[in-house]
Amino acid sequence: MDEPGTLSVREFDVPEVGPNEVLIEVELCGVCGTDVHMNEGGMPLDFPVIPGHEFAGRIVETGEAVATDFAGVAVEVGDAVTVCPGRACGECWYCNNVPARPTACLDRTVYGFTGTDREPTLRGGMSEYVLIEGNADFFRLPDDLDIDYGALVEPLAVASYALEQSFQSGLPFAREGYGPGQSVAVQGSGPIGLLTVATAHATGASEIIAIDMVEERLELARKFGATRTVNIRDYDDDEALIEAVRSKGNDGIGPDVVVEAVGHPSAFEQGLRMPRNGGTLVEVGHFADAGTAEINPTWIVQNDISVESSYVYPPAQFRTSLSLLQGYRDDLPFLELFDYRVDLSEAESAFEAQATGDSYRATVHP
Fold this sequence. Notes:
Blueprint: E1 22-30, H1 33-39, E2 54-62, E3 80-84, E4 86-87, H2 93-97, E5 109-110, E6 129-132, E7 137-140, H3 153-164, E8 183-187, H4 191-202, E9 207-212, H5 215-223, E10 228-231, H6 238-247, E11 257-260, H7 265-271, E12 280-283, H8 297-302, E13 306-309, H9 317-328, E14 340-342, H10 347-356, E15 362-364
Parallel strand pairs: 8-9, 8-11, 9-10, 11-12, 12-13, 14-15
Antiparallel strand pairs: 1-2, 1-6, 1-15, 2-3, 3-7, 4-5
């Protein structure tokens, strides 16, 4: 991406592999909504950038000091792996004082968002090769898991971490936060919304309400575990929509947890009023700036709503994703999300398909 809106195919030298580094050949890379925002000028980055942070590939070379992945699993040439794109510096105030939030790092670098003027240049999944640096976290895929699943580990980490933000240790029995047997509503049935539905299904939610304006997406949400659906187009105004969602949770009281995965300010405004009194809203959709929302703080206070933010995930969340994919691949249609596949020369069309909603998750196959 030479600049927002301008994609071109360029050649770079493949760097030498250092003792703590790994070189992978990329099999596939998803086009995320964040990539679309970046292409539309919604992210202030140092261009040019090799985009792509949802990718998987096979090891073609390892440094002599590399024996295992982040989880301690032995690795060798030919193994399929996926990479946690974000890396904390390990030296700043946040890294030293708030280690549980690596995304707060003041000098964080991220595959797919770092300019090619910083060596090594191959820091994006839309490339034939990616160099996994010594401070990067990568994960070997289980032998019985198709490599395509590797490109879902990152977005599933986003979705599962978002739902986890509603957990309150030791209190689910009192219906505080989220726990098995409770009611969850998910705004948006795009990839993150669908993977949040899948996470709720896997963790034992009794009711899962999927909300979208495209019936085809709601049908897929049912396959991912939604027990009820709400089509936004069936309602004339916000009040009717909000009442429809609340009527489907906890016998008309409202869902315990609502996850906003749309990324539009109006969805946040609506989401605040969807949980039951004392319920929780988790905001994960607004990774990029989509504008401001108009809210009445009195609603939050008088209805005792908890509002939780979810910003990306810690690297260990990839282990959660791999566990969910391996455990539920036969029950949930994860690979149906990949419905638009192109090579590098057609990457621009993949961005267009993702931007227009013609694809759940377009993928580039270098």
